[in-house]
Amino acid sequence: MLSFVVLAAAAASPALEPVVVTATRTETAAKDVLASVDLIGGDALLRQPAADLGDALRFVPGVEVTRLGGAGQQTSIFMRGTESNHVLVLMDGLRLNPGTIGTAAIQNIAPEFVERVEVVKGPRSTLYGSDAIGGVINVITRRAEPGIRVQAGYGSFDTRTASLSAGLGGEQAGAQFVAAREESEGFPTRTGSTTDRGYENTSFTAAAHAVAGPVTLGLRAWHASGTSEYSDFFVAPVDQDFENSVLALTAAFAPTDAWSSRLMLGHAVDDLEQNQSTDFLDTKRNTVDWQNDFALSGHHTLTAGLLWQDEEADALSFGAPYAADTTTTQAYLQDQARFGPFHAVAGVAYTDHETFGGHATWNAELGVEAGAGGRVVASAGSGFRAPDATDLYGFGGNPALDPEESTSYEIGYRQAIGERQSISLSAFRTDIDDLIEFFVTDPDTFEGENRNVASARIDGVEAGWRYDDEAWSASLAATWQDPRDRESGERLLRRARENYAAALARRFGPHEVAVDVLYAGERRDVGFPAAIVMPAYWIANLSARVALGERDPR
Question: pLDDT tier at 550 (50, 70, 90 boundaries)?
């Protein structure tokens, strides 16, 4: 895949040290985070020929992406061998996963909207509740710079893109707006089909902030809507309309020098409507998230909060209607402390789920400095996933299902080599119990029900190397894993044993050329009457960025 991007370049500014929020809910320098974290910067997304966010996530170690067809088709993310509905996706900290089918519509997020993506691997149910078994992906939307920016593109399959961003204001008050449009005629997505299956998406983000005395007020919104075409089980051409939106209002204030507080009120919508039938999936969720951070000393921080969510899920699937209205309330407590060469993070949470009752989760991490620039990290934690409305009431629905539960362990070593290089090595294990699977009760009619009948164990190793200076940046990453069904001994579907990624970029002032290469091993997948093996594949991206000139950002 080849891309060429021409942009107006801003005057160079000093590079800031990367900061991660998702791993602990507090701003922490990336080098100090104990959890396994990868960052994707917005500039890298714009440089890469990524049709959507899933294309960029393929290159993150431990992350596998599958898409059922071309652009705009259903996209699933598997993190460290766990199921696709074991990955929680947030946008600016607000949950995107719907209450109907569990997996977030990440294929509808335009890269033009993204400031950065924080990928946290390992359980985070203690901080975010259900679904965060394999990890959390937090999409931080872009803050537009003052002025106006326009971008347009054209590609294969008659794909057309355009975006506009505008911003005004400063630190005390400001507003930003970004809009994007993508259309593609697509290509045949099923063997035996000759009909192109296309996609169109119109989306925008908007943000505003204002400082009112001791309180900082914020508003963020994202909306995407359009049509996705695909071929059904019988290779007939069909299509569906989609709508995704997020709205968040925040208020941040500091009652004392040692106490800071943040309140977020959120609303999210995830809708799908079939155009060849009356089937639909609809999720609406209201969220209240109140977080309090207490600086007990310069090296000791306590975080306590309440997370309340009310979710309405309605659907009509294969002519059968179902609905669920579910409220969850979670209280969490986390302690971060440094003492000498040690850095520790410990957290506990209790979730009161309206359907499944109380559920306790925990996380514990310990980092020990080992020589100049070295650190050994050991961590453990638990997670859970409450069955969604489709599991409970859809095709094969079973209201007697229990939540899926997990326990994870990880040990790793990280070493900085001077100021420009670093290496990392980690080994992990995740055990998952009460996995939900469809159990066939009548082979002739394929009738059945969902049951907690499976368990899985995932063992794996990740290794990485990075180099970065003013002119060059390079990275190598490898993931080896063995995701197994503990009952049958079979490797879990759609997950490869090995993934390798390499990247090399050369900067010439404001200009840049880069190459990214990915290898993914063979995977087992669904087949009839038995599972099939999908072959290994390579992806190579070559990209260039040319600045037409520098402008003074003042």
Answer: low
